[in-house]
Design goal:
68% of the residues lie in helices and 0% in strands. It has 173 residues and is mainly alpha-helical. Helix 4 runs parallel beside helix 7. The chain is globular, with a radius of gyration of 17 Å.
């Protein structure tokens, strides 16, 4: 059965996402698949496409490097938390150089990593992405560490506490 929007709308399981990934892998066109479906205005289509993409290896995902900015825009603009989390997970697995630093995205990551109302998965990946962006500039790294140290840690879930601890102890690379 070919990948279509209708099929993606009906993919609600880990197994379904794995099947989508296997089919994209078989044709080798991760970029074409992402462009066609990952940015759909139908959040069910986008969610399933992104979920399938998260199964890809880092090497396979490297095809998506040319649309890093589109993933960043989506993560910052989408209201659906599942699509936001999956977009951020794809971004986190792509390369990020000093030239890719976007202050609007860094601000977004800072805001969402400390927002106690945000989902822990989003907080954690935003923290990791903020760390990666701040590594290019010592003054930004200092700001990140001050922000992390100022967090009232009792309000956060274990996943967020773990990432925070790894950053502050220098164990996150």
């Amino acid at each position: 059965m070919p990948i279509t929007e209708d099929r993606l709308r009906q993919t609600f399981s880990e197994g379904g996402a794995q099947k989508i990934y296997q089919e994209v892998k078989a044709c080798g066109d991760f970029l074409g698949f992402a462009r066609r479906y990952a940015f759909s205005e139908d959040y069910l289509v986008a969610r399933s496409a992104l979920w399938g993409l998260t199964k890809a290896s880092k090497e396979e995902l490297s095809q998506l490097q040319v649309i890093l900015s589109e993933f960043i825009n989506q993560a910052m603009q989408i209201d659906n938390s599942s699509v936001r989390r999956l977009s951020l997970n794809v971004i986190e697995r792509l390369e990020m150089s000093e030239n890719d630093l976007r202050t609007d995205f860094l601000d977004f990551c800072f805001e969402h990593m400390i927002d106690v109302k945000e989902l822990p998965g989003i907080q954690s990946v935003c923290m990791k992405l903020a760390f990666r962006m701040c590594k290019f500039y010592p003054e930004l790294m200092d700001e990140l560490k001050r922000t992390l140290e100022a967090m009232e840690i009792d309000y956060y879930k274990p996943a967020v506490k773990g990432v925070r601890s790894k950053i502050l102890s220098g164990r996150l690379k």
